[in-house]
């Protein structure tokens, strides 16, 4: 990359950035005194209020995927990008809070893979624990690479310096402060990210003459009228995303998003650290509200970049779609808010990477090391293992950062990973939770065959054996096929194998659960505006209403 | 070792690994010593608001022109300052209640 993106940072901008780095590490140190047991280290001692875990939940997802990738999608696909939020996230987040959280939090499992160990058997558990651990370090690498690219392009730092600095800061605050360090920093990062994106959005809109000016300009751009509509034109595949509405509703809205939001431990972990059942259930639902509004500060800047940056959308160089937001920052922001915006971008990459690393260290320690290697050690021993696992994860992340370099659009790369790992997992979970007869062996074979199908679809597409309209369509179909495979295998294997006893399944499956009745509520949890069901329903209705102006 | 019986509803599945760490948490958790994040958010945003807002007071015409004629530093600074103060105010008005004592904390 040339010097085209270099920002004119001055001393004040660097002071703002340095202040952030110091604060983040300070939070890690200050959280250290609250760690005495392994649950303190890995799950914040299950003590946090819902607004903290909720904002951390949304922040954990605000990595490279969101800010850079969604602005890129906004410029490339237009208004259809909102599908990733309003149908591709909010319903699944609400479902997690209302339907699935009672099983997760009520059974006191310490991770998502651990649920599989209790519900099915150890092979299912080990399979999931290992694929999750591998996926997390890969995605941590993607986030780290994206962070380093941005620091190199914007600040002129050499790539390796940027990688080492970014990795070191994340390493420091998680090793020292554990999940509390990660979560507290995610809450802080959430606000810094928003503070960085709002000025770009506001000035961008002023530049193009407000919302109506932007709509007129998009009609005249290469996206044309189609760039302003989310659903029109989805009767076929002749639309910017190349996706049929069935693919959007079932592929993205159901299999992909439910797979990601409800079984991804890097997300669910935030809810498990909440202080009681009510707070745990509200965690993803509180997160759904900011999620509804985030397209305002990602998709709109993407569209503004499309119409104001001449030649945006090249295959490589400074004008790739992924640079939509950095280009606007360069063109619009004076020193001062520029420092805030750069800090916000770096914060977003750190939030994403930290979520992966903290998910990894917990699964590695509880689900791999404790369950299969060193079982009967003291609680303190596992805290030490967790700290070492954090160091290892960051080191491997540095290595895998370079794998990401082979792909033009970071977003699609991550999507592909999700379709491979999450969709079959979600299928196994949802069937296992609601069909108590499903046997332990059926759980294992469903998960394995679904994963194989998803991987095979992806590889055959990459090899050119089968073709789809776009990478995104491939991920919809790969996820859908994996889900169907899971269901079919479960239906075939279950009648042939031994069921689990009811007393092994109480609290883990629907119909044998009194988990939601466990009374750990605090004073005030019963007021109407803290009802998970009410909050969730309102979020889904808002998501539907938001579609009206961009139908 | 704490008594596991009250952790589960009648007949609910037990797991020895989960029990071990939950026992340790109930007996020794230090989570109550966690500081209040609102103080940190409030402090950082007050600092950012003052820095950026002060810059906004002295912005040159070139900088204002770059930002489409908007005194963006001044506005962003004021908003961040107000947000930071609101966070500190929230903490001051309703300080963290100490978490409910764990069963293991009882004397």
Automatic annotation (TrEMBL), chain A:
InterPro entries: Na/Glc_symporter_sf (IPR038377), Na/solute_symporter (IPR001734). The chain crosses the membrane at residues 12-31, 51-72, 84-105, 126-151, 157-176, 188-206, 243-263, 284-309, 337-364, 385-407, 413-435, 442-461, 476-496, 527-548. It is found in: Membrane. Gene3D superfamilies: Sodium/glucose cotransporter. Its main location: membrane. Keywords: Membrane, Transmembrane, Transmembrane helix. This is Na+/galactose cotransporter. It comes from Micromonospora solifontis. The lineage of its organism: Bacteria, Bacillati, Actinomycetota, Actinomycetes, Micromonosporales.
TrEMBL record, chain B:
The chain crosses the membrane at residues 40-60, 72-93. This is Uncharacterized protein. Keywords: Membrane, Transmembrane, Transmembrane helix. It comes from Micromonospora solifontis. It comes from the Bacteria. Residues 1-17 have a biased composition (Basic and acidic residues). Residues 1-22 are annotated as: Disordered.
């Amino acid at each position: 990359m040339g010097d085209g993106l270099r920002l004119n940072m001055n001393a004040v901008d660097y002071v703002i950035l340095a202040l952030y780095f110091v604060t983040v590490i300070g939070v890690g140190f200050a959280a250290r005194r609250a760690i005495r047991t392994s649950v303190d280290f890995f799950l914040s001692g299950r003590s946090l209020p819902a607004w903290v875990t909720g904002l951390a939940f949304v922040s954990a997802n605000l990595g490279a995927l969101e800010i850079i990738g969604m602005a890129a999608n906004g410029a490339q696909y237009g208004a259809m990008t909102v599908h990733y939020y309003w149908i591709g996230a909010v319903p699944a987040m609400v479902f997690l809070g209302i339907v699935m959280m009672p099983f997760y939090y009520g059974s006191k499992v310490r991770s998502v893979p651990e649920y599989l160990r209790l519900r099915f058997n150890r092979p299912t558990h080990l399979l999931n624990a290992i694929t999750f651990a591998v996926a997390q370090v890969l995605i941590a690498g993607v986030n780290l690479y994206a962070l380093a690219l941005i620091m190199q392009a914007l600040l002129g730092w050499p790539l390796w310096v940027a990688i080492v600095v970014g990795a070191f800061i994340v390493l420091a605050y998680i090793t020292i402060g554990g999940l509390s360090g990660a979560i507290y920093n995610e809450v802080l990062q959430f606000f810094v990210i928003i503070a960085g994106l709002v000025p770009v959005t506001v000035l961008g809109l002023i530049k193009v003459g407000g919302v109506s000016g932007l709509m007129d300009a998009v009609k005249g751009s290469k996206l044309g009228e189609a760039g302003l509509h989310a659903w029109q034109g989805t009767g076929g595949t002749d639309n910017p995303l190349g996706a049929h509405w069935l693919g959007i509703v079932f592929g993205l809205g159901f299999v992909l998003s439910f797979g990601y939001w409800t079984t991804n431990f890097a997300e669910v972990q935030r809810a498990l650290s909440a202080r009681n059942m009510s707070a745990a259930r509200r965690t993803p639902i509180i997160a759904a509200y900011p999620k509804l509004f985030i397209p305002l500060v990602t998709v709109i800047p993407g569209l503004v970049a499309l119409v104001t940056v001449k030649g945006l959308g090249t295959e490589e160089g400074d004008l790739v779609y992924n640079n939509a937001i950095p280009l606007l920052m360069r063109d619009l922001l004076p020193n001062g808010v520029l420092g805030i915006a750069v800090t916000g971008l770096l914060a977003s990459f750190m939030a994403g990477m930290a979520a992966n690393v903290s998910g990894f260290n917990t699964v590695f320690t509880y689900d791999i090391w404790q369950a299969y290697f060193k079982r009967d050690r003291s609680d303190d021993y596992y805290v030490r293992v967790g700290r070492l696992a954090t160091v290892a994860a960051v080191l491997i992340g540095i290595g895998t950062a370079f794998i990401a370099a082979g792909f033009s659009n970071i977003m699609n790369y991550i999507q592909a990973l999700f379709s491979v790992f999450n969709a079959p997992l979600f299928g196994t979970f949802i069937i296992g939770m609601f069909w108590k007869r499903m046997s332990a062996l059926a759980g294992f074979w469903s998960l394995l065959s679904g994963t194989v199908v998803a991987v095979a679809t992806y590889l055959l597409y990459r090899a050119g054996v089968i073709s789809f309209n776009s990478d995104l369509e491939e991920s919809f179909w790969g996820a859908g096929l994996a889900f169907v495979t899971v269901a079919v295998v479960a239906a075939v294997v279950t009648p042939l194998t031994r069921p689990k006893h009811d007393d092994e399944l109480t609290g883990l499956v629907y119909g044998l659960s009194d988990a939601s009745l466990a009374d750990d509520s605090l004073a005030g949890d019963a007021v109407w505006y803290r009802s998970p069901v009410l909050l969730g329903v309102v979020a889904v209705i808002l998501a539907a209403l938001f579609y009206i102006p961009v139908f | 070792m704490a008594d596991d019986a009250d952790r589960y509803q009648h007949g609910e599945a037990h797991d020895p690994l989960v029990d071990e760490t939950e026992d340790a948490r109930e007996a020794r958790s230090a989570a109550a010593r966690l500081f209040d994040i609102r103080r940190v958010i409030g402090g950082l945003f007050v600092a950012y608001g003052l820095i950026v807002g002060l810059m906004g007071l002295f912005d040159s015409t070139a900088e204002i022109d770059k930002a489409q004629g908007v005194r963006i530093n001044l506005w962003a600074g004021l908003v961040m300052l107000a947000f930071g103060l609101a966070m500190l105010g929230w903490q001051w008005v309703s300080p963290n209640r100490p978490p409910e004592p764990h069963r293991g904390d009882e004397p």
